[in-house]
Hints:
Distance between the termini: 41 Å
Order of helices and strands: HH
Low-confidence stretches: none
Mean pLDDT: 89
Number of strands: 0
Shape: elongated
Largest sheet: none
Amino acid sequence: MDMKEYDRMKATLTLFSKLEEGEQSARERGWIPADDLERELGLISNTGVNL
């Protein structure tokens, strides 16, 4: 395995770990609506218009 493959595998494992943390948090504290998430990420404005 070369360094590029190693870095990619490490990034993939980190991503899956973070996704699992998020899912666990959602199960414990509840899910939020998709619109609220998009608004929090700045993908839509408070008026619902896509940015």
